[in-house]
Amino acid sequence: MAERVLMTEPEIRRALARIAHEIVERNAGVGDLILVGIRTRGVPLARRLAEKLEELENVHPPLGELDITFYRDDLGRRALHPVVHRSEVPVDVNDRRIVLVDDVLFTGRSIRAAMDALMDFGRPRAIQLAILVDRGHRELPIRADYVGKNVPTARDEEVQVRLTETDGRDEVVIVR
Amino acid sequence: MNRRHVLDLDDFTADEIELVMQTTDAMKEVLARPIRRVPPLRGKTIVTLFYENSTRTRVSFELAAKNLSADVVNITASASSVTKGESLVDTIRTIQALGADVIVIRHSQAGAPYVVAQHLRGSVINAGDGWHAHPTQSLLDLYTIRERLGPVAGKSVVIVGDILHSRVARSNVWGMTRAGARVTLCGPATLMPPLGGDGLPPVTVDYDLDRALEGADVVMALRIQRERQTGGMLPSLREYVERYQLTPARLRRARPGALVMHPGPMNEGVEISPEVAYGAQSVIEDQVANGVAVRMALLYLLVGERTTELAAAPAPVGARR
Questions:
Q1: CA B158 to chain CA mean position, Å
Q2: Alpha helices in A42-153 (DSSP H)
Q3: Distance (Å, rounded) from C-alpha B138 to C-alpha B46?
Q4: What is the CATH number of the domain that holds A25?
Q5: Looking at residues B61-80, what average pLDDT do you find?
Q6: What pLDDT, on the 0 to 100 scale, is given for residue B60?
Q7: pLDDT tens, B208-227?
Q8: Could you tell me which of B25, B19, B18 has the C-alpha nearest to residue B1?
Q9: B25: which chain A residues are within 8 Å (Cβ-Cβ)?
Q10: Quick check: B33 and A80 CB within 8 A?
Q11: How many residue pairs bridge chain A and chain B with CB atoms within 8 Å of each other?
Q12: What is the CATH number of domain B14-133+288-311?
């Protein structure tokens, strides 16, 4: 299996820094923002974004993590149900602006599931989406508000995001 | 979880128990939400089939299934065709034809859930069969201990009361030992089953509660049924109370902070004194609340494609129009 590097550690760092700036600009600060990472790799990405936002605005936005297993639309088609974890949304989401954070945007089905999961916690004022890699091939009408990198891919290729917190190092690769 | 049924804990591995515990953690988080409902079992049908009276177990399963968005049908033997003489297997065939993905069964006859498992294409959960097994009770007991005291391995658990007639005790002997706890069974000799010959894992037996309680981390009192006295197995309830009631004085022999448990329903003033039942060390209400979460975990883990695929009747050849 051939592997090609799409993003290196400094590229990931710069992309997250840019996204943090865009979030501040778009929302005129971080006043009522909550960052919610989608398990597994959205969680450390959300944490990093929160730190960058604190550097910029001196406010550390609340962090949440979402396990979307219950909301997946392919649950009934799998032989075994996957292991499920707790979701943690530490503050009331009602009337807050939420930035969902995930590593790869592909079919859009995970994001649909994440939005359904979030709605079960309340009625946010708005939900925005921050993604490290957008690889195309959407199956639902979903697009990201903040994108680290757009990468054209073939449907049968696999994009892997590796992060220090979960994988020991930072890089994005494409496997074919 | 790579199994279709939950009939007893004798065939559960330590890893499987751990998977149920971790999944129960996620379910507790769902139960703490303002809207306690998630969608993973949408379109699935769970049937509860109870041949014995029960409030907490049946309601617990019903809530668990509804919290996962399943459809629930409750059948009690007294209100069904069972009173017209329909056999268990016929009842199962009927329920199957109506499209059940999981049957939760309670029956006074030990082994009944095993018979159901042989005739059902879906999953069976044993909610108590005779004196034999009550696996979901044991799993919720394990979860309650783990939640309060951390890992169950190495803990000392005393189960006191009518061991002979207790499916809770039997399943807990399997579950607790598999999870690495040390189990002591305590009660009058007339209410102690013959141990060692029936394949149960090794446990300590002590007929003296004061001695058994020394250093215990968990004390579980079992319900004493008043019929046992008329059946000649107890000289008198007063004598039982004298020797085996869980009282504040006795509880002080256990570890400080030891947990007090009871599967319910309680006979206050018989096997447990009210001060202990409602005291600071009692986790009896936690057991009831955790029961819903544990049953959600089991339903979630059992119902995958495999069960739906098997439960769907194959189309007859040439039936396509």
A1: 17
A2: 42-57, 109-119
A3: 21
A4: 3.40.50.2020
A5: 92
A6: 97
A7: 999 999 999 999 999 998 77
A8: B19
A9: 85-86
A10: no
A11: 51
A12: 3.40.50.1370
Q: What is the pLDDT of residues B152-200, one digit of tens each?
A: 999 999 999 999 999 999 999 999 999 999 999 999 999 999 877 667 8
Query: CA-to-CA distance for A129 and B114, rounded, in angstroms?
Result: 50
Contact between B264 and B59 under an 8 Å Cβ cutoff? The reply is no
B40 vs A67: CB contact, 8 Å cut-off?
A: no
The whole domain housing A115 covers 10-74+84-154
DSSP SS3 for A130:
strand
**Residues of B with CB below 8 A from A94's CB?**
none
The pair of structure tokens assigned to B236 is: 């008198």
* CA–CA gap between residue B289 and residue B285 (Å, rounded): 6
Instruction: State the best of A85, A91, A118, A120 to mutate against chain B, taking most chain B CBs within 10 Å.
Output: A120
A5 located within any domain: no
A95 reaches B (C-beta below 8 A): no
Rounded to the nearest integer, the mean pLDDT of chain A is 95
- Residue B137 main-chain phi, psi, to 5 deg: -65, -45
Beta-strand ranges (E) seen in B98-199 are 102-107, 123-129, 156-160, 182-186
The whole-angstrom separation of Cα A159 and Cα A147 is: 15
* Cα A90 from chain centre: 17
Is residue A74 scored above 90 in pLDDT?
A: no
Q: Taking the mean position of all CA atoms in its chain, how far away is CA A67?
A: 12
In a domain, A163, yes or no: no
The letter for the amino acid at B7 is: L
| CA nearest to A72 within chain B | B40
Identity (one letter) of the amino acid at A21?
H
CA distance B264 to chain A (A): 29
Single pTM value for the model: 0.91
- Chain A residues lying within 8 Å of B311, measured CB to CB: none
Whether A136 is covered by a domain: the verdict is yes
Q: Which residues of B touch A77 (CB under 8 A)?
A: 305
Cis peptide preceding B76, ω within 30 of 0: no
Total number of domains constituting chain A? 1
Q: Where are the domains of chain B?
A: 14-133+288-311, 135-284
Q: Tell me if residue B59 falls in helix, strand or coil.
A: helix
Gyration radius from chain B CA atoms: 20
Of B222, B310, B302, B233, the C-alpha closest to B267 is: B222
A170 in any annotated domain: no
* Cα gap B2→B20, rounded to integer Å: 12
Task: Answer whether A78 touches B (CB < 8 Å).
Answer: yes
| A125 close to B (CB below 8 A) | no
Domain B135-284 has CATH 3.10.20.880: no
* Closest approach of B304 to chain A, Cα-based (Å): 5
Whole-number Å distance between alpha carbons of A159 and B181: 45
Distance CA(A33)–CA(A30), nearest Å, equals 5
